[in-house]
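Record type: ASSEMBLY
Status: queued
Input:
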Amino acid sequence: MWHYILKRILLTIPTFVGIVLLTFLLIHQAPGSPATGSAGGFGESGVSAADHARLRAQFELDAPIIVRFGHWMKRVVCFDFGQSFADGRPVSQRIAERLVPTLTLTFAIIAIAFAIVIPVATYAATHPGQLVDKIILAACVGFYAIPPYILGMILILLVGVALNWFPFAGLTSDDFATLSTWQKFKDVISHSALIGSCFLIPLVAYLVPFVRATMLSVLKEDFVRAAHARGLSHRRVMLCHVLPNTLRPLLTVMGLIVPAVLGGSVVLEVMFSWPGMGRLLFESIHDRDYPVIMGMTVLTAMIVLGVTLVVDLLYAWADPRVRYV
Amino acid sequence: MNSKLHHLQIACLGLIAGISATVARADSPSLFAPIPSDRSVVDEDATLKCRLRSEPSSFNPILMFTAIDAQFEYLLWDRPFVLDKDLQWSINPDVVESFAFADDHLHASLKLKSSLRWQDGTPMTAADLVFSWQRILDDHVIARKAGHGTEQITQCEAIDPQTVRFTFKEALATNKWSVDFPIIPKHVYEPLTRDDPTMQQSDACVQANRNPIGSGPYQISEWISGERIVLSRWEGYPGPKPAFARIIFRVMPDNNAALLAFETGEIDEMSLAPQQFAADTDNQRFKDRGVKIRGEQWTNYYIGWNTCGPNAFLTEPVVRNAIGLAINRPLISQRVFFGLFKESAGFYPASLTGRDAPRASNQFNLTQAAKLLDDAGWRVSDDDGWRYSQSANGVEKVRAGFVLNLVAGSQTSPRVADIMRSDLRKIGVDMTTQTLDWSVFNERNLNHQFDAFLSAWTCGPDPDEARNLFHSDAAQSGRNYVGYQNPKVDALFERGVHETDAAERARIYRTIEQTILSDEPYTFLVEAPTLWAFNHRLRGVSLSPRGPLHSYPGVRGWWTPKSPQPTDDGLRTGLPQSDAP
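Status: finished
Output:
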């Protein structure tokens, strides 16, 4: 096992370097530059050729790309991602500001999704073909078919504006700093409710049919019939035999969901004025803020590779038949 | 039939919007009511909630350059000279004791008020002003906006703690703009610039720029990245006390979400897109919350033609004139901008040059356009209907056509291009479009790697600022992206900047404008107005040709009354209601 872990970690190193190198080359070779990426001002204050040249010099864009990559790698090894071209602040600080709400939202969504998916899918799988099962499946197809931005607009108009149940802009209230800890918690929850729903609803709609189908096939397995034949209660059969075997394939799906949700959604984050990772990446690409783009690439690559490794290891833990060598 | 009906609908919508805007100005006197001298009626504990499209790049006024940055400038910083609501150069009486040019116009003397203070209590003196001028001129500092014109000052010396004497290179009419630069605190920035002369790379400078010790009536009290910036009133401000205790700037990139936030009272003001002004605000929720206003703005949408590029079709003025005639500006105004935008009559506002009525040749005329192209040797081919001309070698045929670059994300540009493409096709000119993101679009312009581009330009308060677009010197180092070169225009700019008689100056710039319109390196399409929504509790708003935020006193002059106002003052009704039968 330890041998396998070590081998996997060693394998991630060239993968990680490959991702980073490719991204670095792509963004630096793409047309446009940070010197022209910033939004212009009034008539007399746009980017002139002279300013452009000075900005290029300041951002060290005139050096050969290999030299730039060398400088960047040297800093990254010391955990220094450099400074943002947009506002001069450390990249790590800019990313951390956005990572905290995004991470919180991601794990909250995944936890809530599982809390909904498992009972609903279990009910549907144990009552196949019945009216409730059909309604659940139809609802899942319907919700999964709605594009997230349409769902966002519906939620804003209906829940945010018409019913005025939840705020639809930002992460916190203006008086957030003066609130007690409990009030702060409630404030963040209420601000996250609508955007969180936009991530949550399609995720649940995707997972319920998946888990239901897996569970249906598990229910037909010989070991389930054998468990029933041995006189085990239905509850025990479901909890000890069916559910673990159903959730195992879900681990693989988890490995795909986490990076997708963590990366955020530019459209939803812009719509809800949500200060998340998706918007930061979009703004950084728009401004050609290379240090921030690279910082986010490193972070995302590490998370994706890390989650993949953890999922693989969990698979071995969850399924005794799997052996790693 | 449907098409006709559609045009009629658009025309009616435009007419209604036009009337509405006029009504708004007349029926909303309270919105423009200046702050009363009796402050007991003013709610001085109120909070103003403004909308930000994106975050500012810096609060250091020397480094500020975007329109977003400029929203904060007059709130955080005091300046000796300001732009009033008519964008006229004005002496700030709260900062300046006296200012005078010498008779030779080569010197000027400025005396600051002795009561001026930085927000940490340190007196603001002439030394701060001299230090700021030195920083702006420092090659390490990229002062894209603040540096405009300061190179004309050869000497800036502190005569005493309050007095500064300026010496100029030449006696220019624009010297009054050259002295209009921001002042930063020397005691804060001098130690920092020893380590970081750029003022924006070291951690200490970045912190100083994000949490500035300013001189204006507001201080930064909170900046939550990506979400909001909160300004609090500096109670020690020596000048007139502004009405709002707090100003919250909410970062809301999406226009539609911002409008909903306005309607639910989350923000008190926002600029409106043409569709929002004409259609999306015609509901009771909006009318209950606020009023919408249209005002003049010195912004023109234009097509820039690469006059020195490889596309032979665009190098001749007569061809550009022909394309200009083939652009249906009235249809663009009606169909794309809901009739809210006027056809461009030129690029200078009439108040700067006293311009006459628009040229007749500006009018849409496909027959005339086709004739001009025929006369210029660009003939329609019987084979495919496109126009062709012989190339320099006399054998190869060159098709009349060009690629129009558009900025990605614009909702209106593709629709303008569609109208142009349709009409140009009728006269045998092949127009295609290329959508580029802002950075690439700018880079192509800087490198003159384009045929044509669609963009907008806001005229500065002095007509000489257009030199940066039209003077041949600006083709390599300025913003003359189209590579326009005309010795006559260059000479006129030189005369204009040296001329001190206002009437003669206006005449010179009028000639420049006429010459450029004739050569047509740019085809000006429509004039964009400023379209804005305000909460009905707001008062003291003034609309400048740069909108309500970018002139003095701007937001400083806004206020709200203590008690709710009666609804019959025209504010609660909003515009659409004013037009209702």
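Annotation: Chain A touches chain B through 60 residues (CB under 8 Å).
Annotation: The first helix of chain A runs from residue 2 to 29.
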